[in-house]
Amino acid sequence: MAIPEITEKLLAAKKAAGVTFADLEAKVGCDEVWIASVIYRQASASKEEATKIVEAIGADPSFIEPLTECPVKGSLDPVIPTDPLIYRFYEIMQVYGMPIKTVVHEKFGDGIMSAIDFTIDVEKEEDPKGDRVKVIMCGKFLPYKKW
Amino acid sequence: MAIPEITEKLLAAKKAAGVTFADLEAKVGCDEVWIASVIYRQASASKEEATKIVEAIGADPSFIEPLTECPVKGSLDPVIPTDPLIYRFYEIMQVYGMPIKTVVHEKFGDGIMSAIDFTIDVEKEEDPKGDRVKVIMCGKFLPYKKW
Amino acid sequence: MAIPEITEKLLAAKKAAGVTFADLEAKVGCDEVWIASVIYRQASASKEEATKIVEAIGADPSFIEPLTECPVKGSLDPVIPTDPLIYRFYEIMQVYGMPIKTVVHEKFGDGIMSAIDFTIDVEKEEDPKGDRVKVIMCGKFLPYKKW
Amino acid sequence: MAIPEITEKLLAAKKAAGVTFADLEAKVGCDEVWIASVIYRQASASKEEATKIVEAIGADPSFIEPLTECPVKGSLDPVIPTDPLIYRFYEIMQVYGMPIKTVVHEKFGDGIMSAIDFTIDVEKEEDPKGDRVKVIMCGKFLPYKKW
Amino acid sequence: MAIPEITEKLLAAKKAAGVTFADLEAKVGCDEVWIASVIYRQASASKEEATKIVEAIGADPSFIEPLTECPVKGSLDPVIPTDPLIYRFYEIMQVYGMPIKTVVHEKFGDGIMSAIDFTIDVEKEEDPKGDRVKVIMCGKFLPYKKW
Amino acid sequence: MAIPEITEKLLAAKKAAGVTFADLEAKVGCDEVWIASVIYRQASASKEEATKIVEAIGADPSFIEPLTECPVKGSLDPVIPTDPLIYRFYEIMQVYGMPIKTVVHEKFGDGIMSAIDFTIDVEKEEDPKGDRVKVIMCGKFLPYKKW
Amino acid sequence: MAIPEITEKLLAAKKAAGVTFADLEAKVGCDEVWIASVIYRQASASKEEATKIVEAIGADPSFIEPLTECPVKGSLDPVIPTDPLIYRFYEIMQVYGMPIKTVVHEKFGDGIMSAIDFTIDVEKEEDPKGDRVKVIMCGKFLPYKKW
Amino acid sequence: MAIPEITEKLLAAKKAAGVTFADLEAKVGCDEVWIASVIYRQASASKEEATKIVEAIGADPSFIEPLTECPVKGSLDPVIPTDPLIYRFYEIMQVYGMPIKTVVHEKFGDGIMSAIDFTIDVEKEEDPKGDRVKVIMCGKFLPYKKW
Amino acid sequence: MAIPEITEKLLAAKKAAGVTFADLEAKVGCDEVWIASVIYRQASASKEEATKIVEAIGADPSFIEPLTECPVKGSLDPVIPTDPLIYRFYEIMQVYGMPIKTVVHEKFGDGIMSAIDFTIDVEKEEDPKGDRVKVIMCGKFLPYKKW
Amino acid sequence: MAIPEITEKLLAAKKAAGVTFADLEAKVGCDEVWIASVIYRQASASKEEATKIVEAIGADPSFIEPLTECPVKGSLDPVIPTDPLIYRFYEIMQVYGMPIKTVVHEKFGDGIMSAIDFTIDVEKEEDPKGDRVKVIMCGKFLPYKKW
């Protein structure tokens, strides 16, 4: 789970600047998860977006350009991640994968939820019995083409 | 990805009865994904819930009891599932795992989203550019205990 | 690489009927690779398409309905297939994966070639030095959504 | 997915020179995917080809010789690549591997498509509903020898 | 099983200071296993806890802050650890996993023992036939939510 | 995670008899987890113990003898179990493996906790904030022999 | 390492007939390793060849046709075979793989030895110090195509 | 597939000296594949052999001694090598492993071909239809000992 | 770890006959571990040896012939066996592999201990502090051939 | 199979001193395999033992202390080692694992051979037909505890 060097430097700058991802969302005008994805080099930004991110955390402008490059994505190691927070998503796929598949096919037909034309949000849902993490994934349904 | 025999029989009964999971949601009073999880033997139902499910699909009452048992969960094979719809969830974990982790920690502190005190919904979001699949996960935040 | 039972029966019927996939392409009006994918339970057909396929190979009409179901896809075993013809596609991904990625990003920006809104054709290119297999993949470019 | 150091330097030179792979295709007289393969050290060039590539991107002549060496090929890590663009080729092999195998055998007999006597092209197909990525693989059919 | 650099430095400081984990338990007021987890970067401390730990081993105050960060957890390599002491826990899971599962379900219903709202103690049980290692795990029972 | 046939039959008998593992503990005079281990064929019983178990659940006496055989142990599949309850023990090993190792070595010297001269208990700890699962492992410390 | 049913039946017939592979080589006019490959369903025979093989071992003529089908090849399990005789070939690849690669490239340029346009012979070399197994592989050199 | 540093230096010296492995075979009086194995640190040379090799490529005498050490052998990574030239040997083992095993047992009885008391030669066989790579393996037959 | 059917039947016969492996050693005149290897289909017997074994356990003579066949060896599953008794040999290899290698090379030169021209004995060493298992492996040293 | 830096330095010192492991056995008064295990950081020595070892090879006294630390054990990579000498132990486990298990259970009951309260010796057995490597493992039998 090697974090790229640029990510470490940008996170250090962000920390030094005392800016949260929620602050970045407000300043940059994009969702905080997406901004985190750019910083973790899982997504590429336009020059304008990269400039806003780098300026918002007070990092060196030399970091702007690298954030616009198309990264090699999917950086977790090992194949089944051991970090408990991340592993739970693997577990959800294992336990609820087939049920979701069945329900999606029944609602939409044969096809998939795109993970590219896709957004993901993380929200805090306050709850007296303990706050809840809400993760909202929304991807275009792509029907299988026949030819 | 061996589907248990009971699942195949219940799905066949459901098909013969012409009932959708959405119908089951209305009849049973539980979410359709959860009902699918019971049928795929990833979740256990109470006797009442199992009875409603089995009756709603017109299956034999002998299926009620097995649905109340605590199953061995997580049935996908191989370790990284090949079915494209299910794989996308693996991909989402790979690409967005670290960004989500960072944002959750910033919002909640050190801990995880529970995959047990957890719900998952699948919705169809109509969109002129192509309908979208919305998957809403909501799990209790569990802070790491110190001792 | 367990072939589903229905696939074996349909292939036997096709053989008995003396029909090639090229014949099926002509009779059904769909590409032969796609028809093979339906028979190998990697794609789902409409009732009309399934009927044409089943009739064209003289199989029992009871096979029509199963061909319309959304299959669990990706049936190769082990994780890196050993069959030489199929392995070569793994090798092509290993050797040419990064070069293709670079060229696609340069031509299209950050995103992927869809494997869902996707067609694949296999053609025979006659060549005096030895005939050639031409595999033409054509998938919609899906740009990464930002949000 | 460790990119060799020489690749990083050549890509940096190419970027500084503002040359695209399409430009290189025109200047070097070879396909852009093949040139990318040479730069990613998946293919070896002749001295003349290497010289043209290195000159076209304005890199140091000391890079010419290394590009003529026979590389150890297939550099992706892990075994099932996580980058979504590259993974789709794994998925295509998983889903369409057996159908392609069947059709190739029917058209050509027992044998394989060579991945050595082989070319691969990437084209942009403009389409009002969204441009498409066209990947054309063309390999000599190699019939199994009997002895 | 790469030990993070900070861990090595803190362990060296601890050794130089001649302090045992049992001493740390007394000085910091937290369990020794938890303190070891903080030092191995498997758990995050509050600023106060981190200060106490760093002071107790006489390390540089610059180490305080890093100990408050939420680490990427689960650092063992390979997937099945080879160190005999650690492997035994894998073996216990293999041999007693199903029996424990059955007994927990019978005692508590469908759900799990949390590994987050969780404590673990290691005690020495003196025994004339040979001292015994006692490991006490105590995690909140989390019943599966239905929805 | 194939449950042996004999296990399924004994569990069915136990269910029909309406006996819990706690009941078995009382009747057989051995810990319930150990009895479950015998039934899951992870431990071997003496003829007397086997007889008591089989009688207590009203199963056929022909099951006595097989329970005395030394089984091939460790039946979980895949290598990293997917069942959430069982996986948590893998996670505990991943997260707390090195901290436990350090503390054990400090308390006992170089050696391990035996998983053979070993007992494991599962207890319910009532707690107003939610009951807790207590798992107590107790294994003989085995110091590394020098020779 | 599941041997196909047809292989088992043909080997049984061959045994009953008291015919060795060397006899088959003489009767069929093809190499004994190739004939063994046909029987193990790793190679496909023409109708004439299949007929000769089936007749030579006195098997039922219904086995002729299946031997002409293009098999899914590469049947060893697990990924690194454990049978000592077969494993040695894995070891040879591990130990001598890079040296062979270097020598082949020096002798032939960039390319490979085909495993399709390929023959393999097994000979007994008598030697007073112990007979030797001679395995002669001979494959067409395939130079990498440039395009 | 990390090449040891000493290998890289010796190969560079060999290149600078303009010596081929065939030249080395003539000068050293050993087979070129074996010499390559020594250089790739898969085999150990005597002092005399090492001296001849090092002198023949004009390398520093300090390299002599390391070549006499018994190396840790088998350096390919990953477990199934991706380099097409080397992979073909894996494929040959997969496809022809069982047929070879059968023929060897029939010719020699139960035992194996040694990969230690073993030689391997690579020859170029000129052929108007395309030159062929001939790989001759010759290992002592080792019968299984009974005791 | 699927035990072959013939093994199960022979073990059942052996049990019914009340014969231990030590008895078999006396009756057959071969080591008990080797006889167990024949029964587990890891070694092949001569007709005479097989006859003695089958008669000594009172099994049907039809079992004689199959015991003379050369088996596919190495039947443990998964790749790293989970049975604690068997796993310990994996652990010994992991922990003492390199030390043994060094000592063997120092004593014998470059080469290996044969696992084919090899015997293995299991003895009980009585010891007041607890009996000990003695496993004596004895294999011919095979020096690496140079050529 | 990364050898720790300290191991490399100690082996270099040992070589410079011209001391064999057999010499070390005589000087230190411990078995040579155990001493090699200490140097390879698979075992920990007492201060006295470490001092003797370090002095016997003429290494710097600063190496004494690190040799007394409890190492993370089991350093082989990959999971199934490729070095032929070490692999043979894996093969022995695969081929003779079940036969040994059966014989041990028959001789001792249910339990294992300890790999901790364990010694291993390597001896040279001179033999006119070729010297033999004798590896004697001797571990305490640990019976499974019942509770």
From TrEMBL, chains A, B, C, D, E, F, G, H, I, J:
It catalyses: cyanate + hydrogencarbonate + 3 H(+) = NH4(+) + 2 CO2. Its EC number is 4.2.1.104. SUPFAM superfamilies: Cyanase C-terminal domain, lambda repressor-like DNA-binding domains. Keywords: Lyase. Residues 75-147 form the Cyanate lyase C-terminal domain. The keyword Lyase applies. The active site is at 88, 91, 114. GO terms for molecular function: cyanate hydratase activity; DNA binding. It holds the Pfam family Cyanate_lyase. SMART domains: Cyanate_lyase (SM01116). InterPro entries: Cyanase (IPR008076), Cyanate_lyase_C (IPR003712), Cyanate_lyase_C_sf (IPR036581), Lambda_DNA-bd_dom_sf (IPR010982). Catalyzes the reaction of cyanate with bicarbonate to produce ammonia and carbon dioxide. NCBIfam families: cynS (TIGR00673), PRK02866.1 (NF002773). Belongs to the cyanase family. This is Cyanate hydratase. It comes from Leptolyngbya iicbica LK.
